[in-house]
Amino acid sequence: MDSTFRVGVTPDFYLEVKGKFEAPVESKLGNLAWLSVHPMPPQPSNFVTAAHLDQFDAVLALAINFTRESVAGVQRTAVVARWGVGYDMVDVDALTENDIALAITPGAVRRPVSEAILALIFALSANVVGQDRLVRAGKWRGDLPRLGRSPQGRVLGSLGCGNIAQELFRLAKSIGFGRFIAHDPYVSPDVAASLGVELVTMEELFAQSDYLTINTPLGSSTRGLVDAGLLRRMKPTAFFINTARGPIVQQAALIKALQEGWIAGAGLDVFEQEPLPMDDPLRQLDNVILAPHGLAWTEELARDNSLEACDNILTIARGEVPASIVNKDVLKRPGFLQKLDRYRRKV
């Protein structure tokens, strides 16, 4: 096996983030004689193949699928370093069973995603998109279908109270919301209390929120979690905001809620199918703001995601364990520990 620590970069980077990730990656990984960085060749149907994966000790991954077949028989790879925090495209159990760690970048996404949520809150509150369309149609403020509203005194709710939601509540403190509420069976009550967040039931969250935000990972327990029953509990004046993952929400139910006025509107950066199909009914609705799963894609996000992912790779290359490993069970596996020991002896 080549003694150089080889890092592969998944091909979707060069399509979706070209010109935005190279400099920070170069600043971290470019001047190390014992490490080399290589673009991976195109992967069939956006699924990583085992033959290509096994050429690298680490892979910097954007939005590409890692299946059980992707890691079958792979001996060399020690870490998949995800550029971001979502890992619904990764078979985590398969990685663990093949002695491969999955590392994510929670520090890099915390602020940009929280700011994106606030941007949607303000845009929905002030009907920014509707006002823009009005002027473009040659009309003026007397033709406004509704007045805006202030978030002050209203209830900000979050499904999930983890990394991003906690930052959202911190940023929102100065806005003057009347209450912060969240549903999350895993968050410590002490952590929630320190943020001024009241933990409530799922039903209470949907019934009481004026702005309902989705901040939970997509997994088997959350796929399709937000259904018609929960949406019907919402106030007709409430806004629904999703910057997490589209399949958490039953999109047909959300469309019906928007069409029939169960809720006042929605801000969506994620969808069941991405890109959003041209014939999707969401495109025809005036009470929804649509974004291309890129609302949080700021210059800072591109820089910090790259830097944090490279730090995760370098930590593994030193034979150490990154703090942001998802599949912590891999730390108990002799095969993974042998990889770390081998890297440790090289440094």
* End-to-end CA span: 17 Å
- Helix/sheet category: alpha/beta
- What Rg, in angstroms, do the CA atoms define? 22 Å
By CATH's scheme, which homologous superfamily of the largest domain applies? NAD(P)-binding Rossmann-like Domain
Strand content: 5-15%
Main pleated-sheet profile: 7 strands, parallel
CATH topology of the largest domain: Rossmann fold
- Overall residue-averaged pLDDT value: 97
Known CATH architecture of the largest domain: 3-Layer(aba) Sandwich
Order of helices and strands: EHHEHEHEHEHHEHEHEHEHEHEEHH
Which sequence of strands runs across the widest sheet? 8-7-6-9-10-11-12
Q: How many domain modules?
A: 2
Please give the count of helices.
Answer: 14
Q: Roughly how much helix do the residues carry, as a percent range? A: 25-40%
Assign an overall shape.
elongated
Stretches where pLDDT falls below 50 for ≥5 residues? none
Count of DSSP E strands?
12
- CATH class value of the largest domain: Alpha Beta
Can you tell me about this structure?
There is one protein chain. This protein has 347 residues and is an alpha/beta fold. The chain folds into two domains: 5-104 and 298-346, 3-Layer(aba) Sandwich (Rossmann fold), CATH 3.40.50; 109-290, NAD(P)-binding Rossmann-like Domain (Rossmann fold), CATH 3.40.50.720. It has 14 helices and twelve strands. It has helices spanning 13-16, 22-29, 50-53, 68-71, 92-97, 106-125, 128-136, 163-172, 189-194, 202-208, 228-232, 251-260, 299-317, 334-346; strands at 5-9, 35-39, 58-61, 79-82, 101-103, 155-159, 179-183, 197-199, 211-214, 239-242, 265-268, 288-290. It has a seven-stranded parallel β-sheet with strand order 8-7-6-9-10-11-12, sandwiched between helices. A five-stranded parallel β-sheet has the order 2-1-3-4-5. It starts with a strand and ends with a helix.
